[in-house]
Amino acid sequence: MIRIELIPLEGIYIESIGRVELARSKDEVERIIGKADREDGQRCVYDHYEFRLDFDKNNQLEFIEFIYGPFPERTQPEIFGIKPFETEAMKLVNILNERNNGYVDLSEANHVFTFHEISVGIWRDATEEDIKQMISEMKEHGEFEAVQENMKNQLEMAKYFWTIGLGAKNYYK
Q: Which InterPro entries match (predicted)?
């Protein structure tokens, strides 16, 4: 596993590679980590590092998002000394909130939290409560047995956030 430290408002540190700083040019980033596996306009996906990078209109790095959670296969992201994809959802929210010391956008509470002062966002598609409700409804309709294993996996995934992103200063404002 490749250890990658997320450093809010600064960038990331990739073990054995070095720092990738926010506001760096696309050319500078490519010199450090190579060409992206896929590009779509200003968005570049690096499958090996399990993240995507977004560049602004001036081709400067403005956002880094780890998109292979909650169970990454190649990387081990860390932020503030913890592994966000191994930290249960509300515990992660509390840790980020303590570090943020400011406004938190809760408009999509339980699924999305954005911490404005540290420019960090976390996302998940469903909560444990969402999945439990789905299971209950499936049981009522006699549909649960056929998807039982899948729902068990979904319930486990729902304990954690699925992505974590770092933006440049004021990215979420």
A: EF-hand-dom_pair
CB 36 within 8 A of CB 27: no
> Model-level pTM greater than 0.90?
yes
User: How many CA atoms lie within 13 Å of 46's alpha carbon, on the beta-carbon side?
Assistant: 20
| The pair of three-digit structure tokens given for residue 127, joined into one six-digit string | 């909560």
Helix (H, G, I), strand (E, B) or coil at 84: helix
For 80-126, write each residue's pLDDT tens digit: 999 999 999 999 999 999 999 999 998 888 899 999 999 999 999 99
Bridge partners of 112? 123
The ranges assigned to domains in the chain are 2-125+159-167
Pairing of β 112-115 and β 120-123: antiparallel
At 48, list the tokens.
């090996």
Give the residue among 153, 112, 164 at the shortest CA–CA distance from 5: 164
